[in-house]
Amino acid sequence: MAHIIVVGNEKGGAGKSTVSMHIATALARMGHRVGMLDLDLRQKTIARFIANRAATMQRHGLDLPSPAFRDLAEIDQSTLGPGENAYDRRLSQAVAALEAESDFIVIDCPGSHTRLSQVAHTLADTLVTPLNDSFVDFDLLAHIDGETGAIKSPSVYSEMVWHARKLRAQAGLKPIDWIVLRNRLGAQAMINKEKMGKALDELSRRIGFRTVPGFNERVIFRELFPRGLTLLDLRDVGVVGQMNISNVAARQELRDLVKALRLPGVEVDF
Ligand SMILES: Nc1ncnc2c1ncn2[C@@H]1O[C@H](COP(=O)(O)OP(=O)(O)O)[C@@H](O)[C@H]1O
Ligand SMILES: [Mg+2]
Q: Which of 7, 10, 18 to mutate to test the pocket of ligand 1 (most atoms within 8 A of CB)?
């Protein structure tokens, strides 16, 4: 059975696609068989990343370790059972097709509440939720008292995860390991950073997630997208000069993240 990693957050721009690309590439480069699905059928960031990667490999005559991407195939509506949802079928077919040939399946979710995203959350062995360091984004996890900072109630997204957990428990599946990752951290705004840290700490105990070291705001996390590459691929395309201090730090952040995910059978060595 493949271990399923879902990257989700109902907020757009949180870093889901960025985190998905980096985790999947890191696992592929460590020799694991990785399947990938893109549930953002509108933006298709992962599909674009994979196409860009294929083009780069062809141009340079390279065979980089890569995730195996699969589109959600269209289905013949007439084959649906009574009350069966077309999206559910498309997702389960794609997962089933990848399952046999993958150690891990990384699923990138859209930044909104969709049927696909909801069902994907119930499939998650590991759920990774990237979060910008902003209380506007924190509000997607829980509502807090504006004066005291105390947590008042979980948000719709946290409730959706809670529901997914309940369904998994009923089906006898192992619990979701939910991980919240702070993304695009900057060198400034220390007071906000500290406040966010405290709020996340408290919330992690309340609604049951782990927090892990996050990604800082770094150009290297985004500039290689048109070539379908990550910082881990640079050496293979003959780029050595770009290994500046920020890139070395980015590699360390990615390493720390993958370690912190505690994925089965993964010894982080990159
Ligand atoms: N750690 C980071 N450093 C720099 N840019 C980032 C970082 N994380 C995300 N970005 C950029 O932020 C934007 C939103 O990220 P994206 O991964 O597309 O979010 P989502 O998939 O959640 O909508 C993109 O332009 C992406 O390149
Ligand atoms: Mg995205």
A: 18
Query: Of 117, 217, 222, 224, which is best to mutate to test ligand 1, by the most ligand atoms within 8 angstroms of its C-beta?
Result: 222
pLDDT tens over the chain, length 270 residues: 899 999 999 999 999 999 999 999 999 999 999 999 999 999 999 999 999 999 999 999 999 999 999 999 899 989 998 999 999 999 999 999 999 999 999 999 999 999 999 999 999 999 999 999 999 999 999 999 999 989 999 999 999 999 999 999 999 999 999 999 999 998 777 888 899 999 999 999 999 999 998 999 999 999 999 999 999 999 888 876 656 888 999 999 999 999 999 999 999 989
Nearest CA residue ID for atom 9, ligand 1 = 15
Please give the CATH number for the structural domain made up of 3-74+85-261: 3.40.50.300
Separation of CA 10 and ligand 1 centre (Å): 14
Angstrom CA distances, 20 to 38, 154, 254, stand at 10, 25, 11
The HSE-up count of residue 169 (CA atoms within 13 Å, CB side) is: 7
Work out which ligand 1 atom sits closest to the CA atom of 40.
21
Answer whether 0.90 is exceeded by the pTM.
yes
Residues 6+ apart with CB under 8 A from 196: 133, 134, 135, 138, 182
How many CB atoms sit inside 10 A of residue 135's CB?
Answer: 14
